[in-house]
Structures are given as structure tokens and as C-alpha cells.
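REQUEST
  id: r-88c1
  op: predict_structure
  target: ABC-2 type transport system permease protein
  payload:
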Amino acid sequence: MRTLKFLLEKEFRQIFRNKSILPLIFVVPIVQLLILPLAADYEVKNIKISIVDHDHSPYSQQLISKITASGYFKLVDYNSSFNEAFKQIENNKSDIILEIPDGFERNLVRKNEQKLFIAVNAINGVKASLGGKYLNQIISAYNEDIRLQWIPVNKFNTSPIISITVSNWFNPFMNYQIFMVPGILVLLVTMVSTYMCALNIVKEKEIGTIEQINVTPIKKYQFILGKLIPFWVIGMLVFSVGLFLVARLVYGIVSVGNLFLLYCYLAIYLVALLGFGLLISTFASTQQQAMSVTFFFVMIFILMSGLFTSLDGMPRWAYIIAKCSPVTYFIEVVRMIVLKGSSFAEIKNHFLIMIGFALFLNGLAVWNYKKTN
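RESPONSE
  id: r-88c1
  status: 200
  body:
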């Protein structure tokens, strides 16, 4: 224990002596957690729309007013030529074209029907899909308003009516920041811990001190613990700052679940993650190699962790890869505890899986370190 104490003291001094690494560990994650949730929003607004109105009737003006007043669309072009409106899409100045045909009001009054034409710029698939759905919903609501004006409401409605009441659990106002902040916090802790652990050990190889350590009476497990424990502590601090300082004070997110349970899972997760960083360092000879390999896996963690897209919507092969990532399970656990208030019984399988990750990654890293050194 005395040897381990000196190693830990040496590691902490080495970390805090480097003035450039401290902002990377503490300041950068906080700034990212302040900015990223504001951009990671599933709701699309300010969709640029061009309207081609061939009718110029009160009904068409009412429809246009309803679209612009919705808050989702921004009218950028209004004319009577579809070709001119299409040029707006070609010049990336418009996202959607709505063409109102001649006789729009007359056909609605006389024939009780009328067709509208919608053209959507589908280069941005998400924006096109949501923009088209928003516009269809507005037109449908406008159609219902017209039907209510024309069809008198009977005093007694003899047809059965089904009333639907929607209640959103755990996030009543559908605030995407409440959903995104815990997941982004997990990714930031993942990046800091993995990068710092992998680069720290590889740095010992580059400057040549790893050979000096290997010829000392220090045992392998003491050296490895001396490298992992400081970054385990730093990971806990970064998560705590993000959860209590940024998530609570800035975004107003208060955990409804047991924080002790959350930190127990975090402790195991960091052990698994640091074992992964140690494993990378056993293969890499330079810091550049370690950064490249770590960046490769971090990108997979970000895009295939279920943070931005649902795992159920992935192809089968991608779903299997996502389930092989420890980040996927921790994002699920953080959201379950912080937003849902889940108990240990609901996440016990996640605990077992993460313990398996920790044993496998650290065991493989130690075995490979002995083999290569």
C-alpha cells in the first residue's frame, strides 16, 4: 500500500503539474455540456417555405396565415410561378414548396374537395420528413376548421365518439434537453477518461520511463492501479460537476432516482472504461497512435450508443455492435435513474453486464501488458 501511495502521489502531481491538461479535463467538458444540448434538438423549426398561390382567394390567404403563424415555417418566397419557387430550392433558399391551384376556394365550396401540391427538398432527410409532416398536420387542421364552418353541429350526436387524452410520463413538456443532457454527459466522461488514460501510459513509453519502472521492484498491479485510480477519481469529479453544476443549475434537471445507485454504476463503468484505455495503450507505441485508435472507437460510441437514434431502428448487425458497447448501457442507466427513478431491481442486468465489461477489458489489458512488456 505504501508503494501504491507513492505512485498515486506521483501521478496526481504529474497531472496537475501540466497546466494545459487541466482545462481539457474540467473546462472543456463543462463548455461542451453547456452548448451541445442546445444544438441536439429533435424539433425542427424555421423551415423555409415557398408558396405558389394561383388562387389569391380569402381561403388561400387563411391557409397561408395558418402556416406562417404555426412557428415552424418561415415564408421566404410568395409568387405565382412554380419554376421561380423551384429555383429557390435549387439555390438552397427554400426547403418546401406549397402550390395552391387556381380555383382552390371555388372547388372547396362547390365540389367539397381540392388537391394541393407539396414539393420537399429531401437532401436533409430529417428536415424534409418533419417539415412535410408539420405541413400536412396544419393543412389537416385547416380542413377540419372549414368542415366545422360548413357542417352544422347536431344538438345530439348519435354517433359514438372516442376521446383520447395523452399524458407524457417522466418528461411532460417534451423538453429535449432533459432527454439529451444525461446522455451527452456520459459521452463527455467517456472521452475524457479514455483519452487521458490511454495517452498517459503511452507517454511513459515515449519518454522512456516505462523501462525504468519495469526494472524497479514495483509490481505490475501496483503500476496499473497507480495509472487507473487517478483517472477514475477525475472521471467521478467530471461527472459530478456536469450533473450538479451544469445539469441542475443550468438546465434544471434534478435526479428523481437514487444518486447512490447511479454513482455505484458510474464507479463500475469507469473501471471498464479505464480498462479499455489501458488496453489501447498496450497496443499503441506513440501518443498519435493512441489518439487515432481512441478516436475511432469514440466515434462508434457516439453514433451507435442510442443517444441520437433509437437502437430498435438500427439494422440487426448495427444493433449487435451497439450492444457490445459499454456506453450504450450507461446512457440507458443514467436516463432510467435520473428521469424515471428506476430502482436496482430494474437495472440489475445492466450491473451484471457492466461488471462483465470491467472484468473482460481489464483482464485483457493486463494480460496483453504482461505479454508485450
